[in-house]
Each structure stands twice: as C-alpha cells, then as structure tokens.
Design a protein that fits this description.
Helix content is 33%, strand content 21%. The chain is an alpha/beta fold and 372 residues long. The protein has 2 domains: 210 residues, 3-Layer(aba) Sandwich (Peroxisomal Thiolase, Chain A, domain 1); 146 residues, Peroxisomal Thiolase, Chain A, domain 1, CATH 3.40.47.10.
C-alpha cells in the first residue's frame, strides 16, 4: 500500500552527543546531564544549569551535520528538488558578539540565511523557508513539509530545528522567572519550579510514500496527522484547561482517522502553569490511560528545536517499543494525575505516537506518527 507522507531519514544532536545512540543512552535511560554552563558567565542568572554539549559548537556546523546524516540515512542524492524548512531563531551568539563590539559578517544569525546555507550545503533545489514562531517553530516546519508533500507540491522536504544554549535567551527566561530556581527540572512533579535550557538540533527527511517506494528507500514511519491550535488566552500563560492542546490533539487524530495513541511525548516544560494545563488538555482529548512523558527532563528545553528533536525521540519510541521516562520526578501533584512514566524506561507495544509542543502566544502543535 502506498500513499501519504513518510519519514526516511534523520540526524540529531543534543547534550548527549550525536545520533540516535546518544539519545538511546541518554534520553531513554532517564539520564540528566544538567551542569553549569561554560559558554558564558551565568552568574547574573537564578541558575547556571543547562543541558549544553561540551565545547562551543557552531550552530550552522551542527545543523549541517544533522542534515548530512538525515540525507545519508534516507539515501537521497545531493542534487534533489526538495524543500528545506527550518525552525530556528538563528545564531544569537553572533548578535551578542556584535553588540559587544566584536566583528562579524551577516550569516547564520539570520534564520532565513541559515535555511539557505543549509539548502546549499545539501544541494536541495526547492523552497527554502524559516519559521521563527518560538517553541513550535520546528514542529511548524514539519507540519508545513507534510502539507507541501500531501498537496503534491513537493516530493521531498528536509525539516529541521536548531538551538544551542546562549546568553540572550538565558537572560530572557531568567527575567521571566521561568528557569528552575533550584537548578533542577522536575516535569509534572509537585515540587517543580521551572525549566532548564538545552542544546538541540535535528533534521528529518519527509517524502511522499510513492517517491520513497519508487526509489527503494526504507520507510521508518508514517506521519499520518497533525494539529495546530491557539489558546487565544494570554501572551505567555497557557489556558488553564489546555484547550489548545485538546484541539490540536483532536485535529491530529481526526486527520489520521485514529481514536487513540500508545504514547505521548508531552511539551512538559516543568513550569507550574504549563504542566497542569497540559495535563488537563490531554485528559480531555485522550482520557487518563495513555502513557505520557516529558523528555525535556533530560534534554532541557531546546526552544525552536524542540519539535524536531522530540519528533526523533518519538520516532525512536515507535521503532524500539520503549517509552522514555520523565526524569527527576519526585512528588505526585493532584493537578497532574496522569501516567508520566516516572519509574524509568518502559517497554510497551507502540504503534502510534504523538509529539506535542507549545509556545508563548498560546500556540499548540500535535504531530502523529505510526508504524509503516
């Protein structure tokens, strides 16, 4: 059987390192790698803790490496008439250096330029678009890729997200009092105090199933549905009942012709407001029995890259039949009363998974993956 949009390749980088083995060894074991950041002076902030990779990697280089890995896994030729869709705010470190009087040339700090650089690197000749809508940016890139392919406008799309921890956003989240004041992230736990930032870059190849079958590619999964919804409630706070989450999930299920899922990779920031609202939204959409976890408990919040990296995590859960745990959980919260996989990695039959993301402004996305 052919038809629809499929996944044929991916590349990923987090604080755990390169590739799926690093994710399996880190995220799927519930390992937390938060440590004081060394790329800049964190002294002014309420916590120095982040999930940042060793050294000071360059955003364009890491993104290019992930794209190379994705294209190689998919077995695509470099000269491909494919779209490049990127969720990123660009390289803020370049802007910070410039603001301090250091020389720089315009480049990867501009998201549209970064998308173009990425397309040139892998030789994709289709549309080049950058999405900057905060923490749903790379999820939006994946959804736009699905729509281009489903409409017959493209046969291939490389969808990516990129964020590396830097001082600008650390300062903003610190000013908003959303960083975990005790330097520990505990999503859905009663004693949670906030989020921690983390490095994340991922690139995913989406194709029409006809195109993938025609060239003999290995289909890893089908992207069968998506949902996009706004809370229309507050510029920063989620709706207390998680109405946007409920709507996005229901849209994704409806597009896929499905009524339930086997696992949800939640947005799960560890902030007091987000986790309760997301719980309410998921309960309304799916009931109380679906296993849910927040892998930001291990990777940290990767901002614009969250959707792409967590798409890969959800894909691995689907392929391996292992649910990644919510790490750091200590105390049940009556407002968060679902199954958050707190005991460690859990083996389970997994045929359909849902990846959720949310952003300031009340934006919510849901992406549904199924076994081929």
């Amino acid at each position: 059987m052919t038809g629809g949009v499929v996944v044929t390749g991916y590349g990923v980088f987090t604080a755990f390192g390169w590739g799926e083995k690093a994710l399996r060894d880190g995220v799927f074991t519930g390992t937390q790698v938060f440590a004081p950041v060394r790329r800049f002076d964190p002294t002014p902030f309420r916590t120095p803790m982040t999930a940042a990779a060793a050294g000071d990697p360059e955003l364009d280089a890491v993104l290019g490496g992930c794209a190379d890995d994705a294209v190689d896994m998919a077995g695509l030729p470099l000269d491909t008439a494919g779209a490049v869709l990127l969720g990123s705010a660009g390289d803020w470190r370049s802007v910070t250096r410039f603001s301090r009087g250091q020389a720089y040339a315009p480049g990867p700090e501009v998201p549209g330029v970064l998308a173009g650089m990425l397309a040139d690197r892998i030789g994709f000749r289709g549309p080049r678009l950058a999405f900057t809508n905060a923490c749903v940016a790379s999820a939006t890139a994946l959804i736009h890729g699905w729509r281009l392919i489903a409409a017959g406008r493209q046969e291939v799309a490389l969808c990516a997200g990129a964020y590396l921890v830097e001082e600008e956003n650390m300062a903003k989240f610190d000013s908003g009092r959303t960083l975990a004041k005790d330097g520990a992230i505990r999503p859905f736990s009663k004693d949670r105090t906030g989020l921690l930032l983390g490095d994340g870059v991922a690139a995913i190849v989406l194709e029409s199933e006809e195109h993938a079958v025609r060239r003999g590619a290995t289909v890893l999964a089908r992207m069968t549905g998506f949902g996009v919804a706004s809370d229309a409630y507050h510029i920063a706070k989620p709706h207390p009942e998680g109405r946007g989450i409920t709507s996005a999930v229901r849209q994704a299920l409806r597009r896929a012709g499905a009524s339930e899922v086997d696992y949800v990779n939640a947005h799960g920031t560890g902030t007091p407001l987000n986790d309760g609202a997301e719980t309410n939204g998921l309960r309304a959409a799916l009931g109380s029995d679906t296993p849910i976890s927040s892998t930001k408990s291990t990777t940290g919040h990767m901002l614009e890259a969250s959707g792409a990296v967590e798409f890969v995590v959800s894909l691995l859960a689907l392929l391996d039949g292992v649910l990644p745990p919510t790490a750091g959980y200590t105390t049940p919260d009556p407002a968060c009363d679902l199954d958050y996989v707190t005991e460690g990695p859990r083996r389970a039959p997994v045929n359909r998974v849902l990846s959720l993301n949310a952003a300031f402004g009340g934006m919510n996305t849901a992406i549904l993956l199924e076994r081929p």
